């Protein structure tokens, strides 16, 4: 025993040290076990116990992490929990602060689900999109006879559309026998549909559950059977967050059994309200039409006259029209006379004789201007020609030749510019200021030296 006079730790200090030791030495771990005592207070936190055959562990999943857990946590579920080991100091409770919760085997199942989904999608098994009859004449429901799904479906159908004819096809919806039983039922129903055309829609449904509970609806053969069904199929499996291959293969999916029933049939109360509203509109329209026709009848009755009055009125109209016609004819004749006089006056102004006289006067004036302009124009052109001749003479090669120069050309007419361009005995032509000379090239003795 330690001496009594040693300094004793307070309970809170001991719990604090224990918490720090647990958090530092153990840290984050994965723990596998069975859920028990799952509690969800109003705070949003989740408290539960994780246990196995020989021990149990208190766990806390706080609200900021609990909202990321998609699957519901229920007593008896076998899960893996990731968290850090700690101690709740006020009570001295050893606990696990959970960060994530995952169903055991869920990862493998999800991977298998995604592989099979991709395979069936590539084959076109999810391409169904046929319209379902609304409402169906005879609905065939494939589900468990003792499950909550059939009760929910029947309750919604009875409330919304009591006229719906429903036939329950009892099949297991969980376990190994579920998928083969539903496949066999689909085949039988499609064969019977040819004999009973009233059967026109199939609903496959069940309530919620874990991924393992719903796995029968991820069966590849069941998905193909739904795809090849001649009757349109609606799938409503699990809760809103649950999705199965049957949902993808079906013509339509509903998030829950109750939602499926709501989508399949109209609401009789809404139809009754619409019918009452249409009846009220019809009565109002009928009364309005009767009132309008009554007013129209009164108006027509007021306009109805004796045939003698009508004939007298028409006779007065005819006399008025006749008078207007005579006045219009006289006005038209007077207008035509004035127009004719104007045309005669314009024709006289445009007479060929008048135009010829004007043309002769213009020709005489033009001749006079031409006789006056010709000497001035000739003098101007002579001056310009003399200036151009002087400019041409200044730059002409002939003027250079006139000063004593000559141009030598060979037989080909090419100008000789260098002595080296000639050879002895070659015949050349010399162009002078006046005339030409024929020359012969003699040997140059100085050049030979």
UniProtKB/TrEMBL annotation:
It is an enzyme of class 3 (hydrolase). Residues 9-101 form the OB-fold nucleic acid binding domain. It is found in: Cytoplasm. It comes from the Bacteria. It catalyses: Exonucleolytic cleavage in either 5'- to 3'- or 3'- to 5'-direction to yield nucleoside 5'-phosphates. Residues 268-331 form a coiled coil. Keywords: Coiled coil, Cytoplasm, Exonuclease, Hydrolase, Nuclease. Residues 128-438 form the Exonuclease VII large subunit C-terminal domain. Its EC number is 3.1.11.6. Gene3D superfamilies: 2.40.50.1010. One of its GO terms (molecular function) is nucleic acid binding. Pfam families: Exonuc_VII_L, tRNA_anti_2. One of its GO terms (biological process) is DNA catabolic process. CDD domains: ExoVII_LU_OBF (cd04489). The keyword Hydrolase applies. GO terms for cellular component: cytoplasm; exodeoxyribonuclease VII complex. Belongs to the XseA family. Heterooligomer composed of large and small subunits. Bidirectionally degrades single-stranded DNA into large acid-insoluble oligonucleotides, which are then degraded further into small acid-soluble oligonucleotides. This is Exodeoxyribonuclease 7 large subunit.
């Amino acid at each position: 025993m330690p001496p009594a006079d040693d300094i004793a730790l307070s309970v809170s200090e001991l719990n604090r040290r224990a918490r720090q030791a647990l958090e530092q030495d153990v840290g984050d771990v994965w723990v596998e076990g069975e859920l028990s005592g799952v509690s969800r207070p109003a705070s949003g936190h989740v408290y539960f116990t994780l246990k196995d055959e020989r021990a149990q562990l208190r766990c806390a999943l706080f609200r900021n992490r609990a909202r990321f857990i998609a699957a519901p946590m229920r007593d008896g579920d076998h899960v893996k929990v990731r968290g850090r080991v700690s101690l709740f100091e006020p009570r001295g409770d050893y606990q696990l602060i959970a960060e994530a919760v995952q169903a055991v085997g869920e990862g493998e199942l999800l991977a298998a689900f995604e592989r099979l989904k991709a395979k069936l999608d590539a084959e076109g098994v999810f391409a169904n999109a046929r319209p379902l009859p609304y409402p169906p004449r005879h609905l065939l429901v494939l589900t468990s006879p003792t499950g909550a799904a059939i009760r929910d479906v029947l309750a919604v159908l009875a409330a919304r559309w009591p006229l719906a004819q429903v036939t329950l096809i009892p099949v297991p919806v969980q376990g190994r026998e579920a998928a083969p039983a539903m496949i066999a039922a689909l085949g039988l129903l499609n064969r019977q549909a040819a004999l009973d055309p009233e059967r026109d829609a199939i609903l496959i449904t069940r309530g919620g559950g874990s991924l393992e509970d719903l796995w029968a609806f991820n069966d590849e053969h069941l998905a193909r059977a739904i795809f090849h069904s001649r009757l349109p199929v609606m799938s409503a499996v699990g809760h809103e967050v649950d999705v199965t291959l049957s949902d993808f293969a079906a013509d339509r999916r509903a998030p829950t059994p109750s939602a499926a029933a709501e989508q399949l049939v109209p609401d009789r109360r809404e139809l009754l309200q619409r019918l009452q509203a249409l009846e009220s509109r019809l009565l109002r329209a009928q009364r309005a039409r009767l009132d309008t026709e009554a007013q129209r009848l009164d108006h027509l009755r007021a306009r109805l006259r004796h045939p003698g009055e009508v004939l007298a009125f028409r006779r007065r109209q005819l006399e008025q029209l006749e008078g207007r016609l005579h006045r219009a004819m006289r006005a038209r004749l007077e207008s035509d006379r004035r127009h004719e006089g104007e045309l005669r006056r314009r024709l006289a102004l445009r007479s060929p004789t008048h135009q010829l006289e004007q043309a002769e006067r213009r020709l005489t004036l033009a001749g006079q201007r031409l006789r006056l302009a010709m000497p001035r124009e000739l003098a101007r052109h002579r001056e310009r020609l003399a200036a151009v001749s002087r400019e041409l003479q200044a730059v002409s090669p002939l003027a250079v030749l006139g000063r004593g120069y000559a141009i030598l050309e060979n037989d080909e007419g090419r100008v000789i510019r260098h002595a080296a361009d000639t050879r002895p005995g070659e015949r050349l032509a010399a162009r002078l200021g006046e005339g030409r000379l024929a020359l012969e090239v003699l040997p140059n003795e100085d050049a030979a030296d």
